[in-house]
Amino acid sequence: MKDFISIKFKVWRQISNDSNGSYEEFSLEKVSVKISLLEALDQLNEELISKDIRPITFDHDCREGICGSCGFLVNGQPHGPKKGTTTCQLYMRNFKDNALIILEPWRAKSFPIIQDLSVDRNALDKLIISGGYFSTETGNAPDANLIPISPKKAFSSFETATCIGCGACVAGCKNASSSLFVAAKLAHLGQLPQGINDKKERSKKMRKQMTIEGFGQCSNNLECEAVCPKEISADWISWMNKS
Amino acid sequence: MNNFINPNLPTGEVEGAWQKTVKHLSNLTSEKKNKFEIIIVGCGLSGSSAAATLAEEGFKIKLITYHDSPRRAHSVSAQGGINAARSLSGEKNKVVIDQLFKDTVLGGDFRAREVSCQRLSELSSSIIDQCVSQGVPFAREYDGTLATRRFGGAVVSRTFYARGQTGQQLLYGAYQALSRQVNLGNIELITKRDVLDLVIVNNIARGVIARNLINGNLETHKAHCVVLATGGYSNVYYLSTNSLKSNATAIWRAHKRGANFANPSFTQIHPTCIPPGGIYQSKLTLMSESLRNDGRIWLPKKIDSKDDPENIPEHERDYFLERQYPKYGNLVPRDVASRRAREICEKGFGIGFGGKGVYLDLQDSIKKDGLEVIKAKYGNLLEMYERIVGEDPTKVPMKIYPAPHYTMGGLWVDYNLMSNIDGLFVLGEANYSVHGANRLGANALLQCLCDGYFISPKTITSWLANNKEIDNRSIDEACKEALNYVDKKIKALLKIKGEKPVDYFHRALGEIMISKCGISRNRNDLKSALEEVEILSNNFYSNLKIPETNSGLNVELEKALRLEDFIELSILMIKDAIEREESCGAHFREEYQTKEGEAKRNDELFSHIAIWKFNSDNNSHIRFSEDLNFKKINLNTRNYK
Questions:
Q1: For the 2Fe-2S ferredoxin-type domain, which residue ranges apply (chain A) (predicted)?
Q2: Which of A215, B10, B429, B497 is the most buried (most CB within 10 A)?
């Protein structure tokens, strides 16, 4: 494999949600295969700045797959071709020399475009705000070992709690549904003994909020599971619907 | 203003001092709390936990962050775990509290206040209770009780964890608690704003100037007091383990407005990060040092070896940490591990890109415990490594190298976490408090949550209770002045119209800082670093290029504003490193070491917190100090041999 490759980018460009967008093409030479796709975009942006072209706007922060900031469609797929991987963890060694990489923002009614590849995912926060928590007061918690929790249950809860709120599940769904996001939160909290009492109420509130925020109905296509960078299972959606 | 500052330390016994202090703090009825507004800047562990707690008590909170959601704050990246002194039997409690206290003070090499370390240790257990009650899914033992593991620098197992994603789970706990308060109308969430200045009225912090990152507008936000919980400044080094947007702007602007800065040169280098692969590398990814529990660190005995590690026989490997520290082996403290790795690589034994790497090998643990056990312990870390490097760490030894990770230095705060500016509280990594010259592994999350859940809610309430008569007369004037100042600053940057983008200068700054004010320092290098940063600063102001964007959104401008402050802060870091003529913790001055190459403290001259005050009249700094006294623990030398 070559150490450096050339890439052709086709990128969605849009100044704001109110303006019209279009695709623009850029070629980038001498891209190290050891850097990430976002680092290749940094490299491209430096070139654009030197040519007095507005750099490409995209979200990112931790660049290690945990903050959930990054995310756009890479060749039509949320977070790109690699399973269980966020956009920032996509490395150029995964692309061939002279490859065409098409970058587009998440497309969903509930995620208005901010600029280029950056979208507003505030609707996901509103889902959590509607009820994604226990009603514990800070400062007066009981002894943490008072209620034993089996390692199996704790781990199962943990697995759903790993959702990073990136929105890929919504972007991957043809109905732009947030079912997997909500199911993951309900399963994280609902599997723990602390959450048993308000389990029903929480589910009711969060599911109602999904409609308010304009998310669609579950399409049953399991695309959400396929694109989830944390590989959260769509079985939790059935779990949510049953409980 | 004179240089006298009062740390407001409790008198008497170190043990239980916090509980006694709390009894004397003033309180307010929740009705009265309702009338006070508090600005909290930053939504990481300390900011979110403080926001949730203060809102719960009845205050009106404005939480300001540059993120789109509080769940994204850099605390989310913390992998390893959180320390807590807990024992199953009551009488053992004192023993475990003493142990964590002692390890924290020793880890910090006697450069933190003893009473604050004691408080951290005493409060630690209730933090675990708090988090569990929020639904944080910590790892469990087979009987259903909470599981713990050993962590770098510790001989006892007291680190609570959720696989390798402890920070994420703790942050989500706090985020959910604050979301509940947003729902109840007690917190106003103000996202996508960079805080660019502090508003001070009659020597009291009363507001901030923020830039809306979407439309570019400048805004003023007013309140009765201000809390900065904005994290650390490791991005001074350009390549660090921090998230890319982590910055020093809010604390640096507060500093320029009069808040004193403590020990700016105290920065921690993390021993186990993935080494860089090339020039466009934008950050370094940390591999939790919990891997040092099961990984053996080694290098080939042959200089400049190009052999594949699997083919290097046992007798040609140098397990240099085990060789030099038979008792602690691969678990020596972070600074020791980092320095030894750098030394041996500089001698030419290093591996990988630029010879800057050492092996961390899991083979022996896999042979002993089985692949499944190791995978269950570190699952996501191993996957992360494979994604970045393209090699399977269960088959090929991992390559690791030290990288800037955490800054112990920060704004000076008193025992109540208030800076020398009245009404300006500073929490978490942004302040200088318990970590001294080096932070103990798994104490960062602990400090953030101590500050946010338990300490600041009490001390902020008390301060507000005693400062009820808030004078609103000149607040608008002060806001206008600060707003104009920021506006001018932005216009000046946009006017430069040079040739080079922000990152060009940031990379250059990082190179100077890591080579001359990083793992190892000496007077000559520091002096030349000072000159180099000055030159860089001049270049920045004459040759910076920020693109025209025709909309308010301008990411390059955001970066330039941050870099401007990083450059100024770098100069102060270097000055602080020059003035501290001793080695302590992570601050290693080559002139001050023992024959064995260990850090040599000078307690006679430097058993103090260095405090830097900015003098705006002549744009200069003065250094003074707060002496540290140890009653419960004797000043002695660390020995990990």
A1: 13-106
A2: B429
The verdict on A15 and A99 lying in the same domain is yes
Q: Are strands B398-407 and B358-361 parallel, antiparallel or unpaired?
A: antiparallel
Question: With an 8 Å Cβ cutoff, are A164 and B168 in contact?
Answer: yes
Q: How many CB atoms lie within 10 A of CB A54?
A: 20
Task: In whole angstroms, give the CA distance from residue A136 to residue B44.
Answer: 20
d(CA A47, CA A6): 14
Residue ranges in chain B modelled with pLDDT below 50: 1-2
Residues 6 or more apart whose CB falls under 8 angstroms from that of A97 comprise: A2, A5, A6
What is the CATH architecture of B496-614?
Up-down Bundle (1.20)
Partner B contacted by A224 (CB < 8 A): no
Give B376's contacts (C-beta < 8 A, 6+ positions apart): none
Radius of gyration over every alpha carbon of chain B, rounded to an integer in angstroms:
24
Contact in structure between A196 and A153 (CB atoms under 8 Å): no
Of the candidates A32, A63, A150, which has its C-beta nearest B282's C-beta?
A: A63
Q: What is the pTM of this model?
A: 0.96
Measured between CA atoms, the residue of chain A closest to residue B165 is A162
- Compute the distance between CA of residue B589 and CA of residue B608 in angstroms, rounded to an integer: 17
CATH assignment of the domain containing A81:
3.10.20.30
For the domain made up of B271-403, give the CATH fold: Flavocytochrome C3; Chain A, domain 1 (3.90.700)
Helices marked H in B112-188: 114-134, 166-183
Q: Taking a contact as any Cβ pair under 8 Å apart, which residues of chain A between 129 and 188 contact chain B?
A: 129-139, 141-145, 148-151, 154-155, 157-158, 161-162, 164-165, 188
Please compute, for residue B530, the number of CA atoms within 13 A of its CA located in the half-sphere on the CB side. Answer: 15
Search chain B and give the residue with CA nearest A158: B137
Over the stretch B510-533, which tens digit does the pLDDT of each residue have?
A: 999 999 999 999 999 999 999 999
Structural domains of chain A, count: 2
Q: Of A85, A137, A145, which has the smallest distance from its Cβ to B387's Cβ?
A: A85
* Best CA proximity match to B71, nearest among A194, A162, A113: A162
Whole-number pLDDT of residue B156:
87
Contact B168 A162 (CB under 8 A): yes
Closest among B103, B26, B155 to B446, alpha carbons compared = B103
Report the alpha-carbon distance of residue B297 to residue B365 in Å, rounded. Answer: 12
The answer to whether the Cβ–Cβ distance between B243 and A61 falls below 8 Å is yes
Q: Report chain A residues whose CB lies below 8 A from the CB of B549.
A: 54
Q: Domain residues of chain B, as ranges?
A: 75-167+437-452, 271-403, 496-614
Strands B204-212, B218-222: pairing is antiparallel
- Judged by CB atoms closer than 8 Å, whether chains meet at A138 and B49 is answered as yes
Q: Is A199 on the interface with B (CB under 8 A)?
A: no
Closest-approach residue (CA) in chain B for A88: B388
The residues in A 72-131 lying below 8 A from B, measured between CB atoms, are 82, 84-85, 89, 91, 93, 114-115, 120-122, 124-125, 128-131
Which regions of chain A does DSSP assign to beta strands (E)?
A: 4-13, 22-32, 73-74, 77-78, 99-104, 113-115, 118-119
pLDDT tens-digit series, residues B465-513: 998 777 788 999 999 999 999 999 999 999 999 999 999 999 999 999 9
Q: Do A48 and B292 contact (CB within 8 A), yes or no?
A: no
Residues B116 and B630: their CA atoms lie apart, in Å, by 12
- For residues A91 and A175, membership in a common domain is answered with no
List all residues of chain A from 41 to 60 with a beta carbon under 8 Å from chain B: 42-43, 45-46, 48-50, 52-55, 57, 59-60
Indicate which CATH number applies to the domain containing A180. Answer: 1.10.1060.10
Flag whether A113 is in a domain: no
Residue A171: give the domain boundaries: 122-136+147-242
